[in-house]
Amino acid sequence: MKLIFVGDPMCSWCYGFHKEMTTLVEAMPDLEVQVVLGGLAAGSTQLLDDAGKQFRLTHWARVEQLSGAQFNREALLARTNFVYDTEPVCRAVATARLIKPAANLLTVFGAFQRAFYVDGLDTTDGEVLAGIGASALKAQGFDVDAEAFLAVWSSDEAIKAARADFALTRRLGVSGFPSLFVEQNGKIGQLSSGYATAASVQQTLMRLAA
Residue 196 in contact with residue 180, Cβ under 8 Å? Predict the structure, then answer.
């Protein structure tokens, strides 16, 4: 049995779900997990204006209430000329997977989430992403520097890897993030769409395994 997690590091509900996902994986250490980058707003050219900020703050309040996740509202409000393009950060997660296939990708995913939502960093900037990605891999014991990470992130291979994940997301028929799927006996079925608790997901997985 394999659990397929489809999400985007700049999706607030995915950020709120990260703690639940981590709890689930810790409770089921033998569970194989595949991380698929969803590309929530990949390629967007829309500037984040005041209306866009208020829209996100409303969502953030709901996520915070349900999950307890921390948000840096001041950093969001202070952003100027910011394009909410999630392709660069999705590509950064794909880059980590290319550089170190054995890395815990959920942890790397979480590092980018924290960088955006808590630290208020610009997760559309390649050099910023390279620093975060290299640090996340180093924390797992891999010897990767930011310069090497940036080189791979800038490559056609990384661009294609992210696009392949976006294509898989479309094939799976994902309509919201985060989404969970289960692959069992060669068949893939959807487990949940949107925020869910680790306990409820674990219960469903154990029922399927039985």
Answer: yes
**Two tokens at 197?**
């608790």
Residue-wise pLDDT for 107-152, tens only, equals 999 999 999 999 999 999 999 999 999 999 999 999 999 999 999 9
* Tens digits of residue pLDDT in 10-48: 999 999 999 999 999 999 999 999 999 999 999 999 999
Q: DSSP H helical segments within 39-86, as ranges? A: 50-67, 73-78
3-state secondary structure of 75: helix
User: In Å, what is the CA distance from 145 to each residue of 3, 110, 132?
Assistant: 30, 19, 10
Identity (one letter) of the amino acid at 152?
V
Is the domain defined by 2-209 classed in CATH 3.40.30.10? yes
d(Cα 155, Cα 162) in Å, to the nearest integer?
A: 11
Cis previous bond, 178, omega within 30: yes
Alpha carbon separation from 30 to 95, 99, 197, 201 (Å, rounded):
25, 23, 19, 15
Q: How many residues does the chain have?
A: 210
* CA–CA gap between residue 172 and residue 180 (Å, rounded): 10
pTM: 0.97
**Encoded tokens for 146:** 């930011």
